[in-house]
Design goal:
The structure is a single chain. By secondary structure, the protein is mainly alpha-helical. The chain contains 4 helices and no strands.
Length: 79
Amino acid sequence: MHRLTKRASAHTFRLSFASHHLQANVDIRTIQELLGHSDRKTTMIYAHTVPSVTIKKLKARWISKENSVFGCNEPVCRR
């Protein structure tokens, strides 16, 4: 059995929930509704915990995942 080494509060779980959804590119309004916030500004507080990613990095990740899924690591696959 594993034990938690740090205490976790309800806020910790909400922060983790919001951060994971933001990283997965879930719409901020959807996250707002799921967290029960009446104002989007409240939800935007969670956005500072997620590092910003450039379009170039997103494309590189997508290409990398696509190639690994299809087993193609050749340059021809990286269009």
